[in-house]
Design the sequence.
């Protein structure tokens, strides 16, 4: 009896070890992370949950970042490198950032109540980019389509992969992480292009869910069933309702411009 229990526990441990290995190999960390930063992050991180995030959402997110975000790579006073990703929107669109934050469970939202143009920002730090967001984009073969964002992404990934610490160590030429389409028409053939164009053109729309809401009563039970990975709790559901409440432009009009 005792031997059976030991064998059962051993199999469980081995099984968990294999699962962790598979998840880490599918969503590998980019570069090295300081032990202290990793300990804090692992308290809230489960890579298995992130693998299940739909590529449609990531395509939409890449378009939103292309239009309203940037990857900041700056030099500290001592010559070291800081990296973070920021999405900045008008305060009226804060529900969009809240929804993204509820899905990714990454970053921190800050409000800037400027009288002329109040804004809100979602800032995702270096560790979160290394562990989750950049690996997710790479795993799903989703990338940015504007030249500025492409260059920022390529540089950030190069720095992280090669564990470059000092700003002066950054080379002048960086290779592309992804092979880009050769002509404009090929861009429209990308599997994520329709979702990208929605994110790029409209900061307060989410592909798929918008069409769903136009055809079905938007109840928590129905949304949780059909979009359970994105609306896993009532908080994310209420964020979604905020986004859809003020939506004016039918999503079909956006898709009609795509061949």
Sequence:
């Amino acid at each position: 009896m005792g031997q059976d229990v030991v064998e059962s526990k051993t199999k469980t441990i081995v099984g968990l070890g294999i699962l962790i290995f598979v998840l880490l190999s599918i969503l590998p960390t980019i570069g090295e992370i300081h032990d202290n930063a990793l300990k804090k992050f692992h308290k809230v991180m489960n890579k298995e949950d992130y693998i299940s995030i739909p590529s449609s959402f990531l395509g939409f997110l890449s378009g939103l970042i292309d239009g309203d975000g940037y990857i900041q790579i700056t030099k500290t006073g001592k010559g070291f490198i800081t990296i973070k990703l920021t999405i900045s929107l008008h305060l009226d669109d804060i529900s969009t950032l809240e929804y993204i934050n509820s899905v990714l469970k990454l970053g921190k939202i800050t409000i800037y109540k400027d009288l002329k143009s109040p804004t809100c920002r979602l800032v995702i730090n270096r560790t979160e980019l290394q562990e989750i967001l950049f690996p997710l984009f790479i795993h799903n073969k989703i990338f940015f389509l504007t030249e500025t964002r492409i260059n920022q992404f390529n540089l950030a990934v190069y720095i992280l992969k090669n564990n470059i610490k000092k700003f002066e160590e950054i080379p002048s030429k960086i290779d592309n992480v992804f092979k880009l389409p050769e002509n404009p028409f090929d861009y429209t053939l990308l599997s994520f292009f329709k979702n990208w164009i929605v994110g790029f053109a409209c900061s307060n729309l989410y592909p798929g869910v918008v069409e769903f809401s136009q055809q079905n009563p938007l109840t928590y039970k129905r949304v949780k069933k059909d979009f359970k990975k994105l609306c896993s709790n009532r908080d994310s559901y209420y964020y979604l309702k905020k986004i859809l409440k003020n939506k004016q432009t039918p999503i079909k009009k956006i898709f009609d411009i795509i061949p």
Remarks:
- The first strand starts at residue 69 and ends at 75.
- Residues 2-26 form the longest helix (25 residues).
